[in-house]
Design brief:
Length: 90
């Protein structure tokens, strides 16, 4: 049962990322910032959508590290963009 849930999670994340990339390419906005933002949203959303109600398998406990790292990458990319905007204004 746990393996099928893991596979479902991986498939959903992969689908989310592929659709995000396709959307960015179609809109001609394929840049690092929107891709990272959509990726973080996807990881957080799919983690919550696929969360079991009564038990917490060990593989799901390890996702907390993935969520933390994805948020950290988002903060770094957003901070870098914010610095660029502030430097432009000065």
């Amino acid at each position: 049962m746990s393996i099928t849930n893991r596979i479902r999670y991986v498939r959903l994340i992969t689908l989310w990322l592929l659709v995000s990339i396709l959307l960015l390419v179609v809109l001609d906005r394929f840049e690092l910032e929107p891709l990272v933002a959509l990726s973080v949203i996807g990881v957080l959303l799919m983690t919550e959508v696929t969360a079991p109600t009564h038990i917490n398998p060990q593989w799901r406990q390890r996702l907390s590290m993935v969520r933390l790292l994805s948020i950290l990458v988002f903060v770094v990319v957003a901070s870098r963009r914010l610095v660029e905007i502030v430097v432009e204004l000065i």
